[in-house]
Design goal:
heterodimer, A: 227 residues, alpha/beta, Rossmann fold, putative n-type atp pyrophosphatase, domain 2, four-stranded antiparallel beta sheet, B: alpha/beta, 12 strands, globular
Chain lengths: 227, 165
């Protein structure tokens, strides 16, 4: 089946893509929503522009659609992007990296129903520690690009996810009811490399903005380099 | 042994609709198209899992065994549909979290997550245990339970209590 992946550039959408590919599907394009609203209900915001480099590294065309990120209205923009994917790439379905958000999942399901498309959520209800361990085992290189919850501190921003960091997140999860993989919006990530990439992303320049357990690691300049 | 019957036409859907039930129950998964009478004989409980909204292939499968099956059987979404298909359906999409009115100890929650486009009419011979927007969404007859919503998302107590039957 020809599918489009709703692609934020984070670990979940890339893992969903990998699982769809392994099931024998053809990933015809990626769809990234560029939201100007930091508090978007639907879309990942930090470093979304990196999806262009990831698209090149994956060798999969990218549809980028701008949205003001206003609640519910952003769904019209998403629907338009999916219509573009349907028209330009003849896709038959959509893949998402939704794990537990019934808000996001139900809205994408509705759009797919309206457009007569299949909807796949291969990470649905996945244990979040298991998910973190799986992306690491698959060789994803993932940087933490946003934190938005207590007790996450500045040192998380720009860190690469490894076993020690997963252990800390899981401990925080147990103690502070934080979703270790960030499904509740506590953490945003950006994938810099994976076995699916033909080249890796090298960060040339970056900046950190942080205040009171919230902040972003901004990738200001990056490029693809040979592995 | 808890038998989980997959109704998914596409393997990718099993990650979404079967794997979460498997993790809750530690059940053994079998696709409906290769189900044997031995599978049913060796099961203590059977759960027919859901599938993608656009998938209707399972409706053409052989589900005749359900009528004479007396062990605990739970049909979720697609499973609800194969249990109740002889009574006919109405067809409008129900997607998202909705309030439910229930009168059963099987549930202790008042909302549920729906992803379906076929619902049964009020003309079944099952007891209606819960309704949503006037639609029977949880029904029971003997040891057979038909559940229109996805209890693995917001109502895991239903699955745990079913396994005690």
């Amino acid at each position: 089946m020809k599918l489009a992946v709703l692609f934020s550039g984070g670990k979940d959408s890339l893992l969903a893509l990998a699982k769809a590919k392994e099931s024998g599907h053809n990933i015809s394009c990626l769809i990234s929503m560029i939201s100007s609203n930091d508090a978007s209900y639907m879309f990942h915001v930090p470093n979304i522009q990196i999806t262009k480099l990831q698209s090149d590294a994956l060798g999969i065309p990218l549809i980028q659609e701008k949205t003001r990120g206003e609640k519910e209205l952003e769904l019209v923009d998403l629907k338009n992007a999916i219509i573009r994917a349907k028209n330009d790439f003849n896709i038959e379905g959509i893949v998402t990296g939704a794990i537990r958000s019934v808000y996001q999942a139900s809205r994408v399901e509705r759009i797919c129903k309206e457009l007569d498309l299949w909807c796949f959520n291969p990470l649905w209800l996945m244990d979040q520690e298991e998910l973190l361990k799986e992306v690491l085992a698959r060789g994803f290189k993932i940087v933490i690009s946003g934190i938005f919850a207590y007790p996450l501190t500045r040192d998380f921003l720009g860190s690469i996810i490894d076993d020690a960091l997963i252990k800390r997140l899981v401990e925080f999860g147990a103690k502070y009811r934080l979703n270790p993989a960030g499904e509740g919006g506590e953490i945003e990530t950006t994938v810099l490399d994976s076995p699916l990439f033909s080249k890796r992303i090298e960060i040339i320049d970056s900046d950190i903005l942080y205040l009171n357990n919230a902040g972003n690691f901004f990738i200001k300049k990056a490029e693809l380099v040979a592995k | 042994m808890i038998l989980l019957i997959s109704t998914c036409a596409d393997k990718l859907s099993e990650a979404e609709f079967v794997k979460p039930i498997k993790e809750l129950t530690n059940g053994v998964v079998k696709h409906y198209s290769i189900l044997t009478s031995d599978d049913l004989l060796s099961a203590s409980h059977v759960i027919i899992c859901g599938t993608a909204l656009k998938d209707f292939d399972y409706l053409t499968g052989d589900w005749t065994w359900i009528k004479s099956f007396t062990k605990p059987l739970l049909g979720i979404c697609a499973g609800y549909q194969v249990i109740l298909k002889d009574f006919g359906f109405t067809g409008s999409a129900m997607i998202g979290v909705k309030k439910i009115d229930s009168k059963t100890d099987l549930l202790s929650t008042s909302s549920a997550y729906f992803v379906n486009s076929l619902q049964c009419t009020n003309k079944t011979n099952f007891n209606v245990l819960a309704i949503c927007d006037g639609i029977p969404c949880l029904l029971k007859k003997g040891n057979t339970i038909a559940c229109l919503f996805h209890p693995e998302v917001l109502n895991t107590e239903l699955i745990k209590r079913f396994l005690l039957l």
